[in-house]
Amino acid sequence: MTDWLLSGDAPAGFTLDRDTELRSTGEGNATVRYVGHALETEDMRRHIEAGKQCMRLAMTWTDRVSFVLTPSLALKRVAALDVLKEVADPTAVNDDEIFEADFTLMTGEIARMLGDLTDALGGEEDLRAAA
Q: pTM (2 decimals)?
């Protein structure tokens, strides 16, 4: 994530959003948070050269799903964007049908997003080969 901030480029299919957290790896754990702020490459470079690493990075996948990624690969604040709501089933007539349609649509999108994110992070490790 730190490299993505330095270059200003996200992996293919992803964009960097306007929220991030940089934290010092040394004593004191100095932290800089950007919330709703343009992520300027030079600003990031100065903080990273001072020893800070990216601890949270807001991203969007194909204009469909937004989320915050952490170093432990946890996804926080996962949200469907309006483009997904536009393709929702217009024939659903009650709350249960609407929920089921939305859930099915979002599950499929998240599965595709996780595949792309896994590839962007270097792919899966075959643990059986290491044993």
A: 0.82
